[in-house]
Amino acid sequence: MFEIEKVSGIGEYKKEKFLDIHANTKNPNLEEYIYLAPNEKVFLVERKNTLEVRSDRNLSKLLKEEFESVMTSRYFGVGGVEIVLSGQVEEDKIGDLVRLSYNLTKEMAD
Questions:
Q1: Segments of the chain assigned E as strands
Q2: For the domain that residue 73 is a member of, what is the CATH number?
Q3: Based on the structure, what is the number of domains in the chain?
C-alpha cells in the first residue's frame, strides 16, 4: 500500500474521503481518498489498488507506453495518469510522480 508520508518534498496537504457517487452506490464501504494541495485542488486520488496523479500530456503518454499498469486517469482525464499498484512501477518513481503532481497542482491559479 502506498504511504504518502514517505514522499519527501511535499508541503501541507489535506486528506479527505472521496465521495464518488458512482463508486459509493456499488460499494458504500469503499475506502477512497483525495489529497488536496493548499489551494484546495486535488493532486492525488487514492483507491484500493490504484493511485491517480496529475501530470502533463507528454509524461502521461510516455508512462502509458512504458508501463502496462499505467492508464489515463478517471479523475484528471488526459491531464493525469492512473497507476495500478501491481509492483510494475517502482515505489521511488511513484513518489516522484506524486511530488510532481503536488507541485503542478500547487502552482495552479485559483
A1: 14-17, 33-36, 42-46, 50-54, 70-73, 77-84
A2: 3.90.1150.30
A3: 1
CA distance 44 to 49: 14
Q: What is the pLDDT of residues 49-75, one digit of tens each?
A: 999 999 999 999 999 999 999 999 999
Here the cell at position 76 is 484528471
Total residue length of the chain: 110
| Residue 26 reports pLDDT greater than 60 | no
Residue 26 has φ and ψ, to the nearest 5°, of -80, -45
Dist CA 85 CA 49 (whole Å): 6
* Domain range for 74: 4-106
